[in-house]
Design brief:
homodimer; about 325 residues; alpha/beta; Nucleotidyltransferase, domain 5; 2 domains; five-stranded mixed beta sheet; 9 helices; 10 strands; globular
C-alpha cells in the first residue's frame, strides 16, 4: 500500500504524519531530535520514521513521497535558503532519507507555504483554484496558490506577505531590516505591542500577559470591553485588510484563509477584517471570501506531504 | 496546416495576426470596425479574418485557436468584465467567430495579461518560469506569470499593479476611485503631471508637450539636463521600484519586464529603477532581473493567440 510522509521540522523535535495517497492522516508521531546536522542525528530521524511505519504495518519501500517543511525560504527549484531559527543540514538529511526510502520523492517546502498546500489538500481551500493563506503567529507568513499551484517564488520569497509595507512612516525596524512591514502590526507580537501602547496612550492598566505573544489575553480583554484591546485588534484588521488589498491587485485570489495562532480568534475580528479589506480593495475584488483556516497546527505537515506527492506526478 | 489567430481589439479597429502553432507571425492585417455590438459588425470581423486567411493560402477550418485581447478585466474562467473604453459585445462576437471557425478554441485575455503571455511565447521572457510584465502607457497595466502560467485572478484583477497603493497620503483620486495608486505617478500621464508640477515648483518653463501623455518630450528634456524632467523620472522610478518590491513579497518573480510606450525609454531610467527596487525589496529578491520587453505593440496580439492555443492543450 503506497504511503506518504509529512515531516514538520521544529527546533527540538520533528512531528511526522503518515498519510494515505488520498490524504487521510493515519498516524502521527513526534521524534525528539535537537540539532539535525550529523549522521547520528539523521539516523534518529530515519529510525523514527521506520518505527512509525512498522507500527502501522508499512515498510520503507511503501513510501512514495516525503515532504519536509522548514521555517525558512525554499525557492521554486526546492532549494532551502538561510534558516535563521533552526539547526538543520537540509542536504545531509535529504541524502539520509533517500538512502532509507528508495522509492520516495522528497520535497522541502517553506512552513507557511506548506500550510497553504495543506488547506488546499484537506482543509478549507480543498479544490480551490486560487487562495492566499495568511498564517499569523509570532510573525506573519503566507502561502499563495494560483491556478491550483503554490507560488514559492524564484528566490523563495513568494508569499512573504508579512513584509508588505503598510506604513511608510514607521521608524521602528522590522526583523527583515526594513520599516513598516505588516508583521510589525498584525503578528501576535505586533498585536501585543499595539495593546500595550494603547493602554499607555489611554492611561489604562493592561491585563496580565503571558509573554510577548499572548494574544489570547488581548482577545479576552477585547471581549470584556477593554478599549485598548479593541483598538489594537482594529489596528491589526486595518493593516491586514490594507495588505490584502495590495495582494489582490497582484494575484486576486478567490479566498483568503486566516490561520496560525491568531487565526484561532477569527470570529472576534472577522467582520472588522472584511470591512477593512473592502474599504481598500479594487471594485472587482470585493467578492473575495475571507475565512478561517481549518487544519490548525497540522496544516504544514499535510501540505509538505502533498507537495512531495504532487511533484512526483501522483 | 494548423493556424492560430491573435486579435487585438481597439476602439475603432482590430489588428489581427496570423501565426503558425510554433509562434511565427506570418501576416498581419488591420480591420476597421467601429462598435462591435451587432451581427453586421460581427460579420465585418469574420469576413476580415477569412480574407486574411485566403490571402495566405489558409482556410477557416485550419484555425485551431483564436485569442482576443480586450482592454478590461477577464477572470480566470475567461469571462469578460466591464469594458470602460470600448463598445464590444464579447458574447455576440464569440458566437459569430465560433460559427465561422468551427475547429478553433476561443479565449479572451486582458490586454496587459496578453502582453505578458506574448513575451513568454516569443519575447524577452521566452521560457521563463515566472515574471511580471509592467506595461506603462496612459495607465499602468500588468501581467503576472508564475509556474509558467498567467494569473488572471478570480475576479479578473490579477496583475492590476497600476493600483498598488504607493502613497497613502495622496489627496488626488485615481481613475479607480482610490487614492495614491502607482498609476498616478508612474503612467505616462503621471510622469507628465509630475514634470509640470516640478517645473512649477522650480520656477522653470516646461518644454513643449504634445498632449497629456507625451513622455517622449520629457525623456528628451531629461537627456538635455532639464532638472524638472530628471526629478519626474526619479519619482517614477521611486514609485515603481517600491511597488515592485511589494509584488516581490507576494509572487517573487525571476524577472520584471518593462513594456508599453514608456518602456521605450528604458535605457534612460533602467539604473535608477533597479536601484529603487533594490532599496525596497526583501534581501532574497535583490537578484531579480529588470529588463525591457521586446515585442512592443504586438505583444498582446501574440499573447492572446498563445493563450487560446495553450487552453486547447497544444
Amino acid at each position: 500500500m503506497e504511503k506518504v510522509l509529512g515531516i514538520d521540522i521544529g527546533g527540538t523535535s520533528i512531528k511526522v504524519g503518515l498519510f494515505s495517497t488520498e490524504g487521510t492522516l493515519e498516524a502521527v508521531t513526534k521524534i525528539p531530535t535537537g540539532e539535525i546536522v550529523s549522521e547520528a542525528a539523521f539516523a534518529v530521524v530515519t529510525e523514527g520514521l521506520k518505527g512509525l511505519l512498522a507500527e502501522n504495518g508499512a515498510k520503507p519501500e511503501d513510501v512514495i513521497a516525503i515532504g519536509l517543511d522548514v521555517p525558512g525560504p525554499v525557492d521554486d527549484k526546492g532549494k532551502v535558503g538561510m534558516l535563521a531559527n533552526i539547526e538543520l543540514d537540509p542536504e545531509g538529511l535529504q541524502n539520509a532519507i533517500k538512502r532509507t526510502f528508495v522509492n520516495a520523492n522528497l520535497a522541502f517546502v517553506n512552513d507557511a507555504n506548506a500550510a497553504a498546500l495543506g488547506e488546499l489538500w484537506q482543509g478549507t481551500a480543498k479544490g480551490a483554484n486560487s487562495f492566499v493563506l495568511i498564517a499569523i503567529g509570532t510573525g506573519v507568513g503566507g502561502g499563495v496558490v494560483s491556478n491550483g499551484r503554490l507560488i514559492s517564488g524564484a528566490f523563495g520569497a513568494g508569499g512573504e506577505i508579512g513584509h508588505i509595507t503598510v506604513n511608510r512612516d514607521e521608524t521602528a525596524t522590522c526583523g527583515c531590516g526594513r520599516k513598516g512591514c505588516l508583521e510589525q502590526y498584525a503578528s501576535a507580537t505586533g498585536i501585543v505591542n499595539s495593546y500595550k501602547a494603547e493602554c499607555k496612550r489611554l492611561g489604562t492598566t493592561p491585563v496580565a500577559l503571558d509573554g510577548p505573544t499572548d494574544t489570547l489575553s488581548v482577545f479576552n480583554a477585547h471581549r470584556a470591553g477593554d478599549e485598548a484591546a479593541q483598538n489594537a485588534i482594529s489596528m491589526m484588521c486595518e493593516c491586514l485588510g490594507y495588505a490584502m488589498a495590495q495582494i489582490s491587485a497582484v494575484v486576486d485570489p478567490q479566498i483568503y484563509l486566516i490561520g496560525g495562532g491568531v487565526g484561532g480568534g477569527f470570529k472576534l475580528y472577522a467582520e472588522d477584517l472584511r470591512a477593512a479589506f473592502r474599504k481598500y480593495c479594487l471594485a472587482p475584488s470585493v467578492a473575495t471570501r475571507i475565512l478561517p483556516a481549518s487544519l490548525g497546527n497540522d496544516a504544514a505537515m499535510y501540505g509538505c506531504a502533498y507537495q512531495a506527492l504532487f511533484e512526483r506526478g501522483a
